[in-house]
Design brief:
With 81 residues, the chain is mainly beta. It has one domain (8-76): Sandwich (HSP40/DNAj peptide-binding domain). It is 0% helix and 31% strand. The chain has a four-stranded mixed β-sheet with strand order 4-3-1-8, with no helix packed on it. A four-stranded mixed β-sheet has the order 5-6-2-7, with no helix packed on it. The protein starts with 7 loop residues before the first strand and ends in a 5-residue tail after the last strand.
């Protein structure tokens, strides 16, 4: 059975906007150990959402896959070994 994984994104690069392919995702701020509490963000029917902790602006891009981001390094790859 496949598991549904909520995409996680971070902003180590300090960019103004991160394009994402999901409307529901987790923001972790920066990579550990400098991360903020991992918060679930839901854009609903909007195309943008700002994280209340780190003020990163996320913008939905329907051309991206759910776990993808632009810049690509802002997508956090979770190891579920």
């Amino acid at each position: 059975m496949a598991e549904l994984v909520v995409p996680h994104f971070h902003n180590d690069a300090g960019v103004d906007v991160i394009l994402v392919g999901a409307r529901e995702f987790m923001c972790i701020g920066a990579k550990p150990p400098f991360d903020h509490p991992h918060v679930f963000l839901d854009m609903g029917s909007d195309n943008e959402k700002i994280c209340g902790y780190c003020s990163t602006l996320y913008r939905y891009d329907p051309s991206l896959k759910a776990g993808a981001a632009v810049p690509a390094e802002c997508a956090l790859v979770l190891d579920h070994a």
